[in-house]
Amino acid sequence: SLKDRVKATRHRTEDDDDDGVSALLAASLGPPAQCVVFNIPDEDETPPEEQAYYKQKREWVIGKLRALNLNVDQFVNKSNTLLFVKISAPDTVLRYEAEERRIRLRLKEVYGGALCAYSREIESKQAFDKPLDGFELFCSAQQLKIIDEVCHSEPYGVDDPFEAAQNQISFAKLQQEDPVPGLPIVAAYFPLHHDRMRLRLLNEWARALIKPQPLELVREYFGEKLALFFTWMGYYCTMLWIPALIGLYITIQDYNFYRDSLHLSNPYNVVFAVVIAIWSNMFSQLWKNLESSLKYKWDTLDFENLEEIRKEFKENDNTEKDTHVNEITDEVDDFYYDEGTYFPPTGRARDQLVTFTVIVIFNLIAVILFFIIWEDFALPMMRPGDVLFGGMLCGICFSVVSIVFDSILDGVAELELTGLMRYLVARENWRTFTEHEDAIIMKTFYFKILNKYFALIMIAFGVNFVDCFGGPCRCPHWQCMPVLEVVYISILTTELVWGASVAYLFPLINKYFDNLRSPNTANQGKVHLTPQEEQYEWLVPNPVIDFYKDRVYQFGYISLFGIVSPFMSFVCLISSLVDLRSKALQLLTKNRRPDAITAADIGSYQVVLDTLSTLSIITNAGVVGVCSFSLYFYFPTMTDVDCLWATAVLEHLLIIFKIFISSYIPEESEKAKQEWEVQQEKKLAALDNWNIKENEIEDPTPW
Question: Which of 64, 261, 432, 531 has the most CB atoms around it within 10 Å of its CB?
């Protein structure tokens, strides 16, 4: 039991939990806290001098934390292998640091409800609204941010950079320092979940399957970046009902036509192609408008202008420090990296050229493998009227190739496999985290757009008109629509199975092997764990940009080739609805709490969505005119040339409609902008009335 937990005497303090029970209560009633986990080497297997070094490092860190006026609670686990230190901040520290760091809080509605930089003067007017998580002033995410920044703050009064670095806590460096190989001084450093809010989110969000998402709660607990993802995911699921229900109806009509005519085409396929093309372009444009309203609501308008420089950029050997004169301001830049040129290759352009070369090589290999799979394996298994097994083989094989290449370039976070693209983009040395992530998204897209969709594009528009390595490799009787349908269903089904395996199966496999490798996870019988111990064993959450991948490229499958099998839109809807709540549940019950990160938008994924929605006009019009027989229901005497003209006309009409959508639905929400302006006016009026000037905002976090 908890009362039987063994504690080493050298780690006892007057603040320690003697019976272990209050550790459980603190998770729901106590203040938010960061957790640092120290490894304790085995006394029987580790030389005394190394044991002393580990102890000295632990005591040095804990002493520094106490000197920073932070609250430190510590205990040793039952096996005496890990020291858990919980770090929280008293109210005095929170208020002082919030004012110094200009953290923003929301004013009460009577004062406009805008975000305003914290000051004790404004607090004395009782002008700040309470956060949704029940704390008096600062929400748990804000408190965790303050604690983390105080922990990593530079020592006062130390001018020498080397001496400052020696006296500054760096948990990242301590996680890499292992005097005993495989046993770093710090095993982990992470923010703890706050159980009161976590349980509320479980009940009102993750397990509330038919309720709207409480996105303000999600934003306050996880930060804008994750809240934006779940907003986008909810929007995607809502919009997906349109092609899903129409596709379900058309599938029923397909069955009725097949029963009467033994042919899968029907006159509604043309309508569905138009619906999909319009839907995909409206999806992209409506999301821009919704995203704009969130920028005003969450006041992240200036985030990217105020974003901090990446630590990796500052420490990169290629970054110029205090030497480059800015061409606009004529001042010396603190940090600078030349954009360079492609010819001759210099600066960042040279690094990007290496990335593009790798992408081209992988794309060429993917193209060659498609022709080999199609010509040597799939096509010989096809006969007129019997393309099922050949089409399935082609779809599954190409999916496997796509998944393998994806894993190599993009990685599999659930298996702790870092993709080659991360390394290549890291070499490009981007200044801010947003620029870095946007580069990853776009470089990955340049690869994925061919890797994922090339087989479908070639079967729909290519194989009947180009020769393979061994000569002509046309679809049986030139009829590619049945083949395309089987390949499309096979690819999308394989992608869904792989995505489910990555999300739910691989983390369990990864955790199993971690337990085998770790000396601290030996089977010791059933023990009641404190929240720190329990969450230490939970999985590290994936980067937020990885959450989008599956659904963004699933949107591509539906937009580009949804007409091929309308029923798959319904399948994608069901899988997306399940995935939304499953991701929420995993974040709250299986993942350590991620750092609350600010973001103004979904980044370069918007460019990906715009590109896919534009291409959907070409592919849907092309499938109708080149592959499908649907036009013959309306014009039975059409020739092949007439079909091509019809394709061109339909394509141009859809482009005109896209232009109309872009002009009719503004990218910026005027309503949200006006509400934001009213909030700012009321805030300024209140501050003027109190004769208080708001602190200038240097911290980009919109809190």
Answer: 531
Backbone angles phi, psi at 98, to 5 degrees: -65, -40
**Strand pairing class (82-88; 34-39):** antiparallel
Q: Which of 128-142, 151-165, 166-180 comes out lowest in average pLDDT?
A: 151-165
CB within 8 Å of 351: residues ≥ 6 apart = 424, 427, 428, 429
Amino acid residing at 368: I
* Helical (H) or strand (E) element with 567: helix 567-589
More confident call, 468 vs 510: 468
Residue among 449, 459, 451, 466 at smallest CA distance from 488: 459
Question: Exposed, middle or buried: residue 536 (CB in 10 Å: 0-12, 13-18, 19+)?
Answer: buried
Is residue 703 scored above 60 in pLDDT? no
Give the 3-state secondary structure of residue 629.
Answer: coil
How does residue 10 score in pLDDT terms, banded at 50, 70 and 90? very low
* Dist. CA 57–CA 36, nearest whole Å: 13
**Among 220-229, 526-535, 558-567, which stretch is predicted with the lowest mean pLDDT?**
526-535
Relative orientation angle of helices 215-222 and 140-151, to the nearest 10 degrees: 10
End-to-end CA separation in angstroms for the chain: 41
Looking at residue 7, its pLDDT comes to: 35
Angstrom distances, CA of residue 469 to CA of 58, 375, 462, 479: 65, 8, 14, 21
Q: Which among 376, 378, 409, 419 has a CA at the least distance from the CA of 396?
A: 378
What is the distance between the alpha carbons of residues 626 and 620, in angstroms, rounded to a whole number? 10
Pairing of β 104-106 and β 411-412: unpaired
CA distances from 551 to 390, 486, 489, 555 (A): 28, 21, 16, 6
Evaluate if residue 204 carries a pLDDT over 60.
yes
Kindly give, in sequence order, each residue whose CB lies less than 8 Å from that of residue 7, ignoring residues fewer than 6 positions away.
16, 75, 76
**Predicted local confidence at residue 15, as pLDDT:** 44
Structure tokens at 495: 């992608």
Q: Is the distance from CB of 111 to CB of 683 less than 8 angstroms?
A: yes
Q: How far apart are CA 452 and CA 432, in angstroms?
A: 29
539 φ, ψ (degrees, to nearest 5): -80, 150
Report the interhelical angle of 605-622 vs 433-461 (nearest 10°).
10
Structure tokens at 268: 């509604």
Residue 158 has a pLDDT of 61
Say yes or no to pLDDT of 17 above 50.
Answer: no
365 pLDDT more than 90? yes
Res 557 pLDDT > 90: yes
Q: Could you tell me where the beta strands, DSSP code E, fall in 192-279?
A: none
Q: How many residues does the chain have?
A: 703
CB 292 within 8 A of CB 686: no
Query: Are residues 499 and 403 in contact, defined by beta-carbon separation less than 8 angstroms?
Result: no
Determine the average pLDDT of the residues in 654-661. Answer: 94
Residue 387, judged by CB atoms within 10 A of its CB (0-12, 13-18, 19+), counts as buried
| Mean pLDDT over the full length of the chain | 88
Q: Are 292 and 316 in contact (CB under 8 A)?
A: no
pTM: 0.91
Q: Which of 580, 528, 585 is nearest to 27 (CA)?
A: 528
- H or E, element range at 633: helix 631-634
CB 206 within 8 A of CB 581: yes
Instruction: Region of 90 please: left (phi>0), alpha (psi -120 to 50) or beta.
Output: beta
CA-CA-CA-CA torsion for 673, 675, 677, 678, nearest 10 degrees?
170
Give the pLDDT confidence score for residue 12 in this predicted structure: 39
Q: How far apart are CA 380 and CA 372, in angstroms?
A: 12
Q: Lowest mean pLDDT: which of 162-171, 184-193, 307-316, 568-577? A: 162-171
* All residues at 6 or more sequence positions from 188 whose CB lies less than 8 Å from its CB, including other chains: 35, 36, 37, 175, 536
Cis check for the bond before 344: say yes or no (omega within 30 of 0). Answer: yes
Better pLDDT: 544 or 263: 544
